[in-house]
Write a structure and sequence with these properties.
Largest sheet: 7 strands, mixed
Low-confidence stretches: none
Strand order of the largest sheet: 3-2-1-4-5-7-6
CATH architecture: 3-Layer(aba) Sandwich
Radius of gyration: 16 Å
Distance between the termini: 15 Å
CATH topology: Rossmann fold
CATH class: Alpha Beta
CATH superfamily: LmbE-like
Helix content: 40-55%
Mean pLDDT: 94
Order of helices and strands: EHEHEHEHEEHHE
Number of strands: 7
Shape: globular
Length: 213
């Protein structure tokens, strides 16, 4: 029997310009390597990290090129001021209608940053008809217990690291003094890899995961 592979549309949603890369950059790179279509929705301008939204936007665009993202959709909300309301839910819903995604990745809902919590709740409402929705972790996630793992190996870990380097203004802005986001990403990939019995992995918690047999 000859295998037939459907080209899928993958949507990654992030509260800030670099959330997607740290949470699922390796997974997106692996999807792209098989010819699947990658799209991102970034809810805020990330300006609280630099004071300049245009810097964060350019960094996001550079990173998207590395991950082979076909298009970036912007929520255009102010950093730290994302609210759970009808307007925000409709923006995500409109993006979903345009893309018709097979799978969606988004920030985990238990998090010390309010924007991360809020984009998770917004996405929860906006994706009520989507079969595959998975939460990814960031360094500020709490009580994250993954039940899905993706083997990213050295190849896609390297691409993930390059995509994070594109966010040059954020590399040293972590919640661990003296530890860069690149070091955090490598450590997390190794730790999740050990859990999944591979060298390097990204981990997810499923809101819904549809297995078609």
């Amino acid at each position: 029997m000859k295998a037939h592979y459907k080209k899928m549309n993958i949507l990654a949603i992030g509260a800030h310009p670099d959330d997607i890369e740290i949470g699922c950059g390796g997974t997106l790179a692996k999807y792209a390597s098989y010819g699947h279509n990658i799209y991102t929705f970034i809810a805020t301008d990330g300006s609280a990290g630099t004071g300049k939204a245009q810097i964060r936007r350019k960094e996001a665009e550079n990173s998207a090129n590395i991950l082979k993202v076909r298009d970036i959709f912007w929520g255009m909300y102010a950093d730290t001021e994302l609210q759970i309301n009808k307007d925000a839910i409709m923006k995500v819903e409109d993006t979903i209608k345009k893309i018709n995604p097979d799978s969606i990745f988004v920030n985990y809902h238990d998090d010390t940053h309010q924007d991360h919590r809020h984009i998770a709740a917004i996405t929860n409402s906006a994706t009520r008809y989507i079969r595959n929705v998975l939460y990814y972790e960031t360094p500020t996630s709490q009580n994250f217990q993954p039940n899905v793992f993706v083997d990213i190996g050295q190849q896609f870990l390297d691409i993930k690291i390059e995509s994070l380097k594109a966010h040059a203004s954020q590399i040293d802005r972590t919640n661990i003094s003296g530890v860069s986001i690149l070091e955090v990403a490598k450590s997390a990939a190794h730790f999740r890899g050990v859990q999944a019995r591979v060298a390097y992995a990204e981990a997810f918690q499923s809101l819904r995961l549809f297995i078609n047999i």
